[in-house]
Design a protein that fits this description.
about 475 residues; alpha/beta; Elongation Factor Tu (Ef-tu), domain 3; Rossmann fold; 3 domains; twelve-stranded mixed beta sheet; six-stranded antiparallel barrel; 15 helices
């Protein structure tokens, strides 16, 4: 650990916002380190190292950003400093970093700094009013770390969270671990968490057929508005009374009609077996009717349905209802795990296209209505570029693909290249946080979970 009492480098700033420095060869400053800069008049500022380089003679130079100045009361003020010709540079103390957290209102303790494990790493809760991109290859700890973030949001904010959970990783979010600190466990237990599952005990994940957009209903029934004019027109005019009928009653009601279009639609429904799907609400509450009350967290367990279209219907029904109600401006964070399943430009089925286009619309316009996305994936290159380009926060875990890292560097210009380049060497649970929700870009070892992780790896069978 660097002795903070001894100047380790000399720096200068031409604009009061950034700085460059040269380092004593015996000292080491790395990209991601916080430093304290003290000019010749005794004014102190806090900085962040973005890049370092070594020349052929072994001398080290670097550059970074100034994060704020320390006022006479010892507080960090987030504003530009005066340009200076020379300042002594030393490693920032934990107290200096705490001043940064206080100045930026960073309260979500996500882990510790990798470069200094004695110093906590915190995120800014109020900056989740921007879209967030969360990525890491398989085995990086991506989903586990996402659970840590959700726990922190639940404990320390009133921001409702809706989790689209394709692998049942968050279905035990309402259960705290036995060794969780009592005060943190109590906070989580005080929050309302609703787990909606395809079947079994508890609340069920359901949708209402007639609440779906007309084009989606028509796609499910394989109806063309011109080729199937009578049936399509019948679909347009089905009323809410029909949506509450049991499947057999609906078929009987339509089949007994004197209207040829209704009888034809009954045959189509019967042939496709659509009304027998598990996803339909009938007498149960639909997911949209639960979410409208804004529980602190709602987990949509999308795994376990029999037909591939059913989880898509459940997801689309929720997204569409939120978009229809957007003028209410009720903030909500939409966490979409394995987002490549819903956001890929390669998706081609009518349902997949409808969901992707809706997420595109939310990404482009939803922020001003309080609809904020958090997209988690192991395949950044499989996310539609129109969606990923709207994200202002980045969480990057281990990523070995040069193609994916190159794309991330292009899209997220606020993440220092020197830190992005370290991603292939991250250990499990390490992550780079950059963007508006982080006081400064930094590599973090994510803390342990407080709640039970739903999905676990299957072990390799070994001989005794």
């Amino acid at each position: 650990m660097i002795d903070t009492s001894v100047p380790q480098a000399s720096a200068r700033s031409l604009d009061g916002r950034s700085f460059s420095f040269t380092v004593d060869p015996a000292a080491q400053f790395l990209a991601g380190d916080y430093v304290t800069l003290t000019d010749t008049e005794g004014h102190e500022a806090l900085g962040f190292v973005e890049a370092t380089a070594e020349d052929v003679r072994g001398s080290v130079s670097g550059s970074g950003k100034l994060l704020g100045v320390v006022d006479p009361d010892g507080r960090l003020v987030s504003r530009a400093t005066r340009p200076f010709a020379r300042a002594d540079v030393g490693a920032a103390s934990p107290e200096a970093i705490e001043r940064l957290y206080a100045a930026t209102r960073a309260t979500l303790e996500i882990g510790v700094q990798v470069s200094n494990p004695a110093v906590p790493a915190r995120l800014l809760p109020h900056r989740f009013n921007r879209h967030t991109f969360w990525c890491g290859q398989s085995g990086s700890g991506k989903t586990y770390a996402l659970g840590v973030l959700i726990e922190q949001l639940l404990s320390h904010t009133d921001l409702p969270v809706i989790i689209f959970d394709p692998n049942s990783d968050f279905v035990r979010l309402d259960e705290t671990l036995p060794d969780a600190p009592a005060d943190e466990a109590a906070l989580l237990h005080s929050r309302e968490v609703r787990i909606l599952r395809p079947g079994g005990e508890g609340e069920h994940l359901r949708a209402r057929f007639l609440a779906l957009p007309l084009n989606v209903r028509a796609a499910l029934l394989r109806l063309d508005p011109l080729r199937d004019r009578e049936e399509y027109n019948t679909l347009v005019h089905l009323d809410e009374r029909v949506s509450m009928l049991e499947a057999d009653d609906l078929l009987a009601d339509l089949a007994a009609s004197q209207n040829p279009g209704e009888r034809a639609l009954a045959l189509r429904l019967d042939n496709l077996g659509l009304l027998g799907w598990q996803v339909w609400a009938r007498a149960e509450a639909a997911a949209t009717e639960i979410i409208v009350d804004r529980p602190n967290a709602t987990v949509l367990d999308l795994g376990g349905f029999r037909y591939a279209e059913e989880p898509l219907i459940a997801a689309l029904s929720v997204l569409d209802d939120l978009w229809r109600r957007r003028e209410e401006r009720r903030p909500v964070l939409l966490v979409i795990d394995e987002a490549h399943n819903l956001c890929s430009p390669e998706l081609t089925s009518p349902l997949q296209v409808a969901i992707r286009e809706l997420i595109l619309q939310i990404a482009a316009e939803g922020r001003k209505f309080g609809l904020w996305l958090l997209l988690s994936t192991q395949r950044p290159s499989k996310i539609h570029p129109g969606i990923i380009s709207q994200c202002d926060n980045l969480a990057l875990m281990k990523m070995s693909s040069p193609l994916d890292l190159a794309e991330l560097a292009t899209v997220f210009g606020f993440a220092p290249e020197a830190l992005l380049a370290q991603s292939p060497n991250f250990r499990q649970g390490e992550a780079l946080f950059a963007g508006g929700f982080s006081p400064a870009p930094g590599i973090v070892q994510v803390r342990g979970r407080l709640t039970v992780e739903g999905g676990i790896d299957v072990p390799v069978p070994l001989r005794a």
